[in-house]
Amino acid sequence: MRRVIWAIPLVLSAFLASCVRSASSPPVESAPGAVTATIFPAITPTIIPAEFPLDLGSTWIYDYSAYTAASEAIWNVTVTIVAVTIRDGFLIAEVEQAAILKAGDASSHLLNEPMVGHFWYLFDGGHLYKQSEEPDPAHAADAWLELVFPLGGSGCWFPDARQRGEMNGVTPASGPVPGCRSVSGEPHPVEVPAGKVEACIDVVTYYNSGPTFLTFCPGVGIVATRHDHSGSQFGYHSALTGYLLPASNGGTP
């Protein structure tokens, strides 16, 4: 079983630099630097979530910064779908994440350096799970529950499987509840270095140490994440700087 190389988690992630298009510019004709992994068996189009394009070759690039009171470092983080398959009713996307230090000192014991290696998304049509080991769909319910589609409505969900088990499947009607994740506010346009993206959704997870924030834009994916510890001065911020979506000819130049 292959395991991920973790360097203290990122919440989220990343998207490619050259050959990607701004949210408002015309589609690119082709995706350079084609990924060599293959899809098998053939993907049923209806299972690929329109909200989150988990197609082979989809790539996102982020600027990711981690800081403490004494130091800060910035990485270029690239996240690419390198394999896609369907098994037991799940779309399974293998994701490769790479990070290159751009500025600062990564040896200064930062608490939120980006992870490097592979992880997996599992999508069953409504639930997007995330695992750091090669997944077994039979145990998807034990995985981290990243997002629930469609995003919106009232209530919240527990990403952590242990908390979901302790709650016996019952989620609170409203937050803030420590460990519970929910949509905050109404869809709105977001400006990130990759450009302006419409109808984005803010997702917040409450913790005693301070909330984490994730901004998701349907049709593009995760465009920003943030956590600022409410006690000691440390945290992380990420913002989408580019992306390439071969299946829809979308991206930034």
The domain tally reads 1
Largest sheet: 12 strands, antiparallel
| SSE topology string | EEEEEEHEEEEEE
Parts with pLDDT < 50 across at least 5 consecutive residues: 1-46
Shape label? globular
Give the number of helices: 1
Q: Work out the helicity level.
A: under 10%
Q: Specify the CATH architecture.
A: Beta Barrel
CA radius of gyration: 18 Å
Beta content: 35-45%
Q: How many individual β-strands?
A: 12
Mean pLDDT: 79
According to CATH, the fold-level topology is YmcC-like fold
Q: CATH class, please?
A: Mainly Beta
* Secondary structural class: mainly beta
Distance between the termini: 37 Å
Characterization of the model:
With 253 residues, the chain is mostly beta strands. The protein has one domain: YmcC-like fold, CATH 2.40.360. It contains one helix and twelve strands; from the N terminus they run E-E-E-E-E-E-H-E-E-E-E-E-E. Strands 1, 2, 3, 4, 5, 6, 7, 8, 9, 10, 11 and 12 form a twelve-stranded antiparallel β-sheet that branches. Strand 1 and strand 2 (72-87) form a beta hairpin. Mean pLDDT is 79; it is low at 1-46.
In short:
With 253 residues, the protein is mainly beta.
Key traits:
twelve-stranded antiparallel β-sheet; disordered N terminus; YmcC-like fold; globular; 253 residues; mainly beta
What is the topological layout?
Elements: E1 59-68, E2 72-87, E3 90-104, E4 117-123, E5 127-131, E6 144-148, H1 161-166, E7 181-192, E8 195-205, E9 212-217, E10 221-228, E11 234-245, E12 250-251
